[in-house]
Write a structure and sequence with these properties.
It is built from six helices and no strands. It is mostly helical.
């Protein structure tokens, strides 16, 4: 069993590295469309997390939280300098002007999703916990780094 876990971890690391390298070789259009797709996926996943947690289906919700966490980490790579404009990006220039702040928010969002996996089942108010640990990060990013739509 331990050997299988080590092999799985190695595969995940290799996949992550190859994904990062392939993201660097993408066109600006692919990068912008890719980040929009990841943000969209996280939004639809967050809605599913809320629905599952509200029904008490915590294991399914936790699995989705972990996926969201990974997406936030991946998103950091989707904002190279050459992707500031074009292809209907809604990303504000503030992202590149305050890159550390943006990256820190993506890391916090990722970390909060992992924390949420351990808090959600014992929460007295699931909706409030989701708002605090999940939706507030979405709002923080949208209000600071995304163009109004």
């Amino acid at each position: 069993m331990i050997q299988k876990i080590k092999i799985l971890k190695t595969i995940i690391i290799i996949f992550s590295l190859s994904f990062t390298f392939s993201a660097n070789a993408q066109t600006v259009e692919e990068i912008i469309k890719g980040r929009k797709a990841l943000f969209s996926k996280n939004y639809s996943t967050a809605k599913r997390v809320q629905a599952l947690a509200s029904k008490g289906e915590f294991d399914k919700a936790k699995s989705l939280m972990i996926k969201m966490s990974e997406n936030y980490k991946t998103l950091i790579e989707y904002f190279p300098d050459n992707s500031k404009e074009g292809f209907k990006t809604e990303a504000l220039p503030l992202i590149w002007e305050n890159k550390k702040e943006f990256n820190d928010l993506m890391k916090k969002s990722s970390d909060d999703m992992i924390k949420l996996t351990s808090l959600i089942e014992d929460s007295e108010d699931i909706r409030a916990t989701l708002t605090q640990m999940m939706w507030s990060n979405c709002k923080a990013c949208h209000s600071r780094f995304r163009a109004p739509h």
